[in-house]
Amino acid sequence: MNFTSPLEQKPGIIADVLRRSYAGLVASDQDHWSQEEGKWDEYDREVFQYPDTVGACIFLTWKDNELIGFGSYDPRQRPTSGRIGHNCILPEFRGNGFGKVQILEIMRRLKAIDIKTAKVSTCSHPFFMPAQRMYIGCGFVETGRKPLEIDPRLELIEYACEL
Question: What is the dotted CATH code of the domain comprising 2-162?
């Protein structure tokens, strides 16, 4: 596996991976999750519009010259903490440990810039159960829960891991 900058690709690649990665979730509940698609387009624009900030904190993951996903992070709270952002693996590559590899790469990058704690959040929706197990498997511990803005029946689960 190798990691490259998305800036070597054409704009739209990040939004495309997000759409493909979350297609099952959006299809399961259009009312709540389809509104996220506009945020994915905006994030893609920001990656290319701000290459030295947003664009510098994201990487594409490749296996055998095939794109399998991407990982991202936000180091602005350093040195106390850094936040793990999207950790997307395309559906056809799930179940192979690639999400964990991306998380470990993000943690390596955060540690390299002297960040002490990695933080991440996910959702209590069943779609995100593999992510919950993965974070715990990477050493994260749950630090709190709060109602999810787009659907208060669900919770946003917060995790942290000392680096």
Answer: 3.40.630.30
pTM above 0.85, yes or no: yes
Alpha-carbon distance 158 to 144, whole Å? 5
pLDDT digits (tens, 9 = 90+) for 84-98: 999 999 999 999 999
Q: Say what the pLDDT of residue 33 is.
A: 83
Categorize the per-residue pLDDT at 161 as very low, low, confident or very high, splitting at 50, 70 and 90: very high
Given a cut of 90, whether residue 140 has pLDDT beyond it is yes
Domain range summary for the chain, segments of one domain joined by +: 2-162
